[in-house]
Sequence to fold (152 residues):
Amino acid sequence: MIQPPSPPTPTRTPGEPTIAEVKAGVQRREHQIADLVPAELVDRTRSLDEGSFLGCADGRQSWTGRTWVYLHDADQVRPAVEMIRRALVEAGDGVVSIRTDAAGDRGVTLTLPHDEQYLIGPGPDSDPTAIWIDSFSRCVVLPGGVLPGDSY
Fold:
């Protein structure tokens, strides 16, 4: 059986951020997005301490994480997602688009330079008061000893 060639092993270029720097920046942006929801609507927030990696076409890896914003009232989830969308458009930091999931819920995608991306929308989990913020960092080279399947 013929196997497809493996992507070349990437090497970190000077000035390229480390995975730790990228993770910290993505988590900071998740919290900034969560803070766009008015405090009086928010019951609590929760963020993952560790995320995982998704492979990029060039052999680098994207760090992925998630933050949840739980509201007091499930009826405020969709309006809060719209508030986030409007605030992101107004800030003008990246490309903001709307997407509709299989359940018909509208969500927001924020794409920043270097393909850093955030998916924001009503939580697909069992809690109807949840808004999720999924994050995907720019693609970077993993440090020695860290494997693509590892939590980080």
User: Anything to note?
Assistant: The first helix runs from residue 19 to 34. The mean pLDDT is 91. The helical segments are 19-34, 77-91. The two ends are 34 Å apart (CA to CA).
